[in-house]
Prior knowledge:
mainly alpha
Amino acid sequence: MEKKAIAATVAVTVIMGMTFLASSELLIYADSFQSAAIRWSFALVSMLALMALRLVKIEFKGKNWLHAAPVALFQPCLYAVCELEGIRLTTVAESAVILALVPVAVALISAVFLKVRISKIVAACIVISLAGVLLTVDYSEGFGGETIGVIILFAAVITGAMYSITSERVSGEFAPIDLAFLQCVGGGIFYTVVVLIRGQLPETVSIAVHNPSVIVSGIYLGFICSALGYILWNYVLSKIPAYISALFIANGITLIGVWVGVFFRGDHLTVLSVIGMILILAGVLGVGLKGQSQSD
């Protein structure tokens, strides 16, 4: 694997892993859909500002943008809606366990439908990392969520996997910045329409402009996480197979999320959590070493 792709993968993982803090702050003032609308509105404004300042350039001509539309449809539109509603209707444990299946879904879809050959070592590493994620989950709330919530979470798993796969497949036609631009436009418009339909648009605008902490969180989530973060994420998907990058990023985010909870929220670090993190690292490093050996 290229060193630039590895560096971008680490950067994406850190950026996305830290979103927990900003999202938690935003959710103090706004509900889930309002938070998404604020985040992606900031993302859209950030992307347009970068274009106006000529810091980024989008090539609109000579491309069939409909080919890339599924990328924005799957992420941030469908995935985020399913994730938000699934989490709302289930317990923390259920949502964490089910959403941890995204790398597995990417591997299965790639192997079954796209005929991608996945080595036994990579498959074993995926299973090891999944076991690690399951050990880090807080099961204190049990598994008492609504059935429809579980179904919606599985829909999130599928749409999350499809984002990785579709971004990888159109990377030959569209640059990472093109796809990130489309995601920012799609997310900004989609969630603005959602809060408008819910009758929350005036309240959402007021929250976004009158609370300094919301502005800071919006800048991080919109500019750093969404605009810059997805440029890097799409770059990673253009360089590393989706089933491998999904394992790196999804499990890396879990690791960082655990440490963020420990250092910033005072969460208790259990022995099982430590074992789980070791397994996650073992799985990720195993895939990394396998990929490196294949590239040498």
